Amino acid sequence: MKKLIKSATWLLLSFVILGSALYASNAEAETNLYVGAWSKHLVTEGLNERHDLIAIEHNNWIAGTFDNSYDRETWFAARKWSWKHGDLEAGVYGGAMRGYSTCFGDDGSGSNVCPMVAPHITWDAGPVSPQVFLLGEAIALTVRVAL
Q1: Which of 35, 70, 114, 127 could form a disulfide with 103 if both were Cys (CB 3.0 to 4.6 A apart)?
Q2: Using only C-alpha atoms, what is the Rg of the chain?
Q3: What is the dihedral of CA 19, 23, 28, 31, to 10 degrees?
């Protein structure tokens, strides 16, 4: 029950932040939905590599949830900085996430707020775009859908 209350609190906070961003934005706003994430860990074997990511991005702010490499529900909020060259977009997400017990792994104890830095490359050639990003030792693939 305690986990459900924490999850509901983070979900509510994510929607409040997103709602505020939508309310304060102009008509030229860019909004994207991210769904699914599959990863390959570069060092450690036997970790979760299917992450059930769901996130919403609006005007370079993103918030969402995923199942981390240790099968723990993780919530995050971040800012995106990116640069485009043709159909390629490269950049980095910087923010915070909650779901790991330590910021550099997981020892099975409680959940902490940790910094988040995730470089990414996106092939931006239409309304549905694949994105590859690096988070810790995992290189992951997700799908971005323009709304």
Answers
A1: 114
A2: 15
A3: 0
Nearest Cα to 77, choosing from 92, 55, 59, 110?
Answer: 55
* Contact between 33 and 127 (Cβ < 8 Å): no
Nearest to 14 by CA among 36, 34, 38: 34
| Assigned token pair, 68 | 């981390």
Residue 4, SS3? helix
Phi, psi of 14 (to 5 degrees): -60, -45
CATH of 2-146, one of 2.40.160, 1.25.40, 2.40.50, 2.40.10: 2.40.160
Residue range 31-84, pLDDT digits in tens = 999 999 999 999 999 999 999 999 999 999 999 999 999 999 999 999 999 999
Determine the Cα–Cα distance for residues 71 and 46; give it in Å rounded to an integer: 11
User: Do 71 and 81 form a contact (C-beta atoms < 8 A)?
Assistant: no
> 10 Å Cβ neighbour count for 55?
22
Please give the model's pTM, rounded to 2 decimal places. 0.78
